[in-house]
Design goal:
Dna Ligase, domain 1, 8-stranded antiparallel sheet, 17 helices, alpha+beta, 33% strand, globular
Length: 665
């Protein structure tokens, strides 16, 4: 075994690899961009090397900078993680040229499976079932349109290179073909530097099943069972589990055989995954792609087999043979992984950025994460902040443990999909193992919405703060509520103090609080309720409303009140109603609508100029944030009066991009 390892990646997977490498006694070297200078993986590693600016194209995707970092630190081996350069044969070849051990499959295998077109050809020749499609050399729009019509709609237009759902568009109608081809090509070029596309028949309402392979350099190739990754959004997996539910033994064995056949066809020699799409109605399956790397969801396979896949990768790279035979591998119980992401599921899964003010994952879950309290979640990279995994004796127990663990996971500072994931696990279609890739659309056709929490609960917490401003002392730990200033309860002499507050983002609901000590009288919409509230510790409030008690997490940063519990993930910017009304009155009656940046990111394109007439729904600009492209549309018809940014600009959230004088008619 070599003695040192450079991890050519970041975030969660870098931390995951460091943990195993450290257990094996290896010296670890991290790399980081400007955006990751204070990241957790940098702090965990024994050494860290700066490799460039925040954009991945200027840092994590630079082969020469990875190699330079390895040589400068005396690293013996390089592990690419997943994403970035993990499926680029250029890095594997560069390692060989510089006497660095490559922790991954041979470059020829990466190249063979790196192009979906070439991979499909190899799979077909090996006898692995493939989806009907077009993968020709003619990449003109006309050729792709003709191929789609010849195959027959619906079809999937997809990037030949890369993965992760980038450059993929489902097309149901002929009128949408040209736009889908253009957008898929643009996204593929931006994500992978390769705009080559293929067209495949779209299997509707399918399951996504994949088989984990593990091979060594002594001719051994084994499978470690299968995973079901059907719950997806925009082809990005959200929930993954092993083994796949409701899969008959015959189909399972055919999947293993097909995956091993493909692996042997390319002499595969490390951890890899063969992905299949399965017709939910017939049970027929077709080859989708092979990922020549570690998968995000490798954790559930580790949970049911007890095999550390990163350790196996390192040992294989060091020339060791696999320490077990196929018949010695056992699957025990059931495991499910949820990808916790900094996304607002109630707003169309819009990415969220900010500082993690509080982070405490449920201790009963396995947590693979690249963040800690105080970490910055920026717009430069993926929105996933943690993988939470539950293992149970059976699937029912795993589902119950994961849902409960998600409820007990505490996070504040950025909006996450925590409660959406909890709700998804508890939906009958998932609980019964009937989920397909259409799960989200079928379960929430109008979009998911959180149950939320009452305004009276928010203001009850605020009331507790206003009545609890004693100075901090060693005997009395400082409360986060002491950071909140500028609030006051005022009343006439001889009468209970009373003040009215509102959430600045939802000013229509106003809450009045009366009383000097808990319990307080809280009035919302003319209805008065008695609320008792007190601290349990620095981040938990015990609240009783009309005799019903519950404990919620609470934190204040500036004027933002963060609340979390099994019922809510809420951020309320609480301000005195009088101050809000005064500010609104001072703004005047502005006539122009504005298109603003919904979050920090890059302005990819600006489609209008001052004086131009636009219609409601027109795309005025396109932004990129956390690898997602967002179309910013006109809310009304009118004339563009001004533009406040240019394509290529990096914008803060709320930056004005286009000012529009709406057509009043």
């Amino acid at each position: 075994m070599f003695d040192s390892l450079l991890i050519a990646n970041r975030g969660e997977i870098a931390c995951r690899i460091i943990r195993t490498a450290r257990r094996l006694g290896l010296r670890t070297i991290a790399v980081y961009s400007d955006a990751d200078r204070d990241a957790l993986h940098v702090k965990m590693a024994d050494e860290a090397v700066h490799i460039g600016a925040a954009p991945a194209s200027q840092s994590y995707l630079k082969v020469e900078r990875i190699v330079e970092a390895a040589r400068a630190t005396g690293a013996a081996a390089v592990h690419p993680g997943y994403g970035f350069l993990s499926e680029r044969p250029e890095l594997a070849l560069a390692c060989a040229e510089n006497d660095l051990v490559w922790v991954g499959p041979a470059p020829h295998a990466i190249a063979a499976m790196g192009s979906k077109i070439e991979a499909k050809r190899i799979a077909g020749e090996a006898g692995v079932p493939c989806i009907p499609g077009y993968a020709g050399e003619d990449q003109s729009d006309a050729a792709l349109v003709a191929a789609a019509l010849r195959i027959g709609l619906p079809v999937m237009v997809k990037a030949s290179a890369g993965g992760g759902g980038k450059g993929m568009r489902a097309v149901l109608a002929e009128a949408d073909l040209a736009a889908a081809i253009a957008s898929a090509r643009t996204e593929a070029e931006r994500a992978f530097g390769n705009g080559r596309l293929l067209v495949e028949k779209l299997v509707q309402n399918p399951r996504h099943i994949e088989v984990q392979l593990l091979g060594d350099r002594h001719g051994n190739l084994l499978h470690l069972f299968e995973r079901d990754c059907s719950v997806q959004r925009n082809h990005q997996k959200l929930l993954e589990e092993a083994p796949a539910p409701n899969l008959d033994p015959g189909t399972r064995e055919r999947l293993f055989s097909a995956a091993l056949t493909l692996g042997r066809a390319i002499d595969y020699d490390n951890a890899g995954t063969v992905e299949f799409i399965m017709d939910g109605a017939t049970g027929d399956f077709f080859f989708l792609e092979m990922n020549t790397r570690l998968q995000v969801e490798h954790t559930v396979t580790e949970a049911i087999t007890g095999i550390d896949l990163v350790e196996m990768q390192l040992r294989i790279a060091a020339g060791e043979a696999l320490p077990f035979a196929q018949h010695e591998i056992r699957a025990t119980g059931h495991a499910i992984e949820a990808r916790l992401a900094a996304e607002d599921a109630a707003s169309g899964f819009r990415p969220s950025t900010g500082t993690l003010l509080h982070w405490n994952p449920a201790p009963e879950l396995r947590c693979d994460s690249g963040v800690a309290t105080g970490s910055t979640v920026g717009a430069s990279y993926d929105s996933m902040i943690a993988k939470l995994v539950a293992h149970g004796r059976d699937r029912t127990e795993a589902c119950r443990r994961l849902a409960a663990g998600l409820e007990r996971t505490e996070v504040a500072g950025v909006t996450t999909n925590r409660l959406f994931l909890r709700d998804a696990i508890r939906r009958p279609a998932f609980a019964e193992g009937r989920a397909t890739t259409e799960f989200l659309a079928q379960e929430w056709p109008e979009g998911w919405q959180a149950a939320g929490t009452s305004d009276s609960l928010v203001l009850a917490a605020l009331a507790r703060h206003l009545r609890n401003r004693q100075p901090c002392s060693p005997a009395r730990p400082p409360s986060p509520w002491h950071t909140l200033g500028g609030f006051r309860l005022l009343g006439e002499a001889g009468s209970p103090a009373r003040a009215t507050y509102l959430d600045a983002e939802r000013p229509e609901t106003r809450v009045a609080i009366s009383g000097q000590e808990s319990p307080f009288a809280v009035t919302v919409g003319g209805e008065t309720r008695e609320i008792d509230v007190d601290w349990r510790d620095n981040t938990r409030l015990a609240i009783s409303i009309d005799g019903r008690a519950e404990t919620v997490g609470a934190l204040v940063a500036g004027d933002a009140v963060h609340l979390w519990s099994a019922r809510c993930d809420a951020v309320h910017r609480v301000v005195p109603a009088a101050d809000f009304d005064a500010a609104q009155a001072g703004e005047g009656a502005g006539a122009a609508d504005r298109v603003t940046a919904p979050m920090p990111g890059l302005l990819v394109s600006l489609n209008v100029r001052p004086g131009e007439k636009v219609a409601k729904g027109d795309t005025l600009a396109v932004m990129e944030s956390m690898k997602l492209l967002m179309d910013l549309k006109a809310a009304a018809s009118g004339i563009v009066t001004a533009v406040g940014a240019a394509a290529g600009d990096t914008l803060d959230a709320g930056a004005v991009i286009v000012t529009l004088d709406p057509d009043e008619s």
